[in-house]
Amino acid sequence: MTFSLGILAISPMRYVHADETVKIGVAAPLTGFAAYTGKDMENGARLAVEQINKDGLQIGGNRVQIQLISEDDAGDPRQATQVAQKLVDEKVVAVVGDLGSGTAIPASKIYSDAGIVQIAPTATNPAFTLQGFKTTYRLVATDAKQGPYLADYASNVLKIKSVAIVDDSTAYGQGLAEQFEKGAKAKGIKVLSHDATNDKATDFRAILTKIKGENPDAIMYGGLDSTGGPFVKQAAQLGLNMTVLAGDGVCTTDIAKLAGPGTKNIVCTIAGEPLMKMPKGPAFEEQYKKRFGFDPVLGSPFAYDAVYVIVDAMKRAQSTAQDKILASMPSTDYQGVLGGIKFDSRGDLLNSVISFYKYPSGKQTWVDTVK
């Protein structure tokens, strides 16, 4: 039986063996505080590779088998550079990764020096593509859009007049918070304070007690759900029941498990459309659940498309050589799960979008999408 729906087509094997095996790397946190989002990203890439191999791939007249080389960066910048060098030594032709800006940015220099395409599915810090590297690409909007759009929503929709900001001191969390602060001030929102914690913190009561004395209309938290969840939970426990604004690091399907009753206070953004609104999102979700037995989390459709974008570059170049793939990337014009994928001169996604979510009854619920 053949299941056919655009890029999700699955057909019987067309060849017995490959003339060539090509390695694509995945760098993601497979252990540590962000492991479940990293595994989700790896699953998306794996699903793409399995479907490409099942469908059959020919490049330059050769039958090509894709091999996924997955490495664990543990969400740690230093380990991310070690992983990057390991993937370079493995002679991968391109890399899907890293998950977050704090790992994608330090790893990018190594991939650039090696001339290897790096597609970050969900890294949002603008600095990632502002380094002048020809190898860096991403499939989501940057925090230069996410932060100001969150500030716009806070001002125009939520009518917030004052805010206290806290970030986790990572490239992602601090970068998003800084972009939000610029946007908030531009909208006339009074920023009462901007405090920093860290991505390993568990007790936020000192910061939250100070914020309670400031009595802001809202709190903005820049960081991941692993700290954002306990932050929101402790805020509610201290009687701070105002809106907590956050970005895609907090805006996960599982945040309610970490934030408890405080989840109802969260208003957050994701740099991309919700899966149900993506052109091929429902079909992807069906295939993902069939393969892995559970729902996608966040980054899997982006990682899935990243693999297909790399293979599309191979097809257009009619080559599996990493320099030919790199040369082919700027002219990408691919229709994926996410929709149309094109890049600007820096490697940022053209026509990117920001989606807003709330959590009534603890369930992630899409509110709006801004293009």
Automatic annotation (TrEMBL):
UniProt key word Transmembrane helix: no
Cited Gene3D superfamilies: 3.40.50.2300
Keywords assigned: Amino-acid transport, Signal, Transport
Matches recorded under Pfam families: Peripla_BP_6
Source domain of life: Bacteria
CDD domains, sorted: PBP1_ABC_LIVBP-like
Record-annotated Leucine-binding protein domain positions: 21-352
Signal listed as a keyword: yes
Family affiliation: Belongs to the leucine-binding protein family.
Listed name of the protein: Branched-chain amino acid ABC transporter substrate-binding protein
